[in-house]
Amino acid sequence: MKKLHWTLLSLFILFFACGTNEKLEELESENQEMLQKLEMEKSEILKKMEKLNADLAFYEKADIKLNFLSAKMKNLKARIVTNHGDIEVSFLPYKAPIHCFAFIERSLNGFYDNTTFHRVMADFMIQGGDPNSKDKDPNNDGMGAPLLAIPHEFNTTKHVPGVLSMARVSDTRMGAGSQFFIMHGTKSHLDGQYTAFGKVLKGMEVVDAIAQVETNERNRPLKPVVIKTIEIIQ
pTM of whole model > 0.85? Predict the structure, then answer.
């Protein structure tokens, strides 16, 4: 009887030990899988952190360059030479650096030469800078744009007489083109909705004169108001 008892006990211990070993092996396998998964996740996190650090370094450098450009542009002015006289404007590079840079660059490259102020509304604004206005078809004026748009830089500058601002299409998801306008009146509904990037320093009387020219039903001057060139000066 004792022999049978010990035999049964031995079998029980052996069975229990086998079961325990199997369980331990199963747990060890699960632990290995979990460790591998954690290592993969750690590797992914490290890669993302590396990319994030690289992006931060890039933007820090870009910010330094933008601040440097803004400081340089602050000392520049533009002289808009028209067949009605000259309009001199200063820039707001710390509020709209990309717009200021684009306007200066286009002016230096002659982009605006022989375009017109194709849309004129007294007590509102005069609008120009459309490359389409260089051709002989007045019906496409206001529809032209450069190949690349620039991101909006809406800011706190008020749209009061003399403010230089960038035109845009109604969908704000699309960037600004090359068309700009100079305010002749005060329109608060434009504030924060259009990018103001400059102000008239001299020649507001020229803006007044252009705003008073005779126009058709589409606010296009009957006699072209030509932007002969835009000079960038110190």
Answer: no
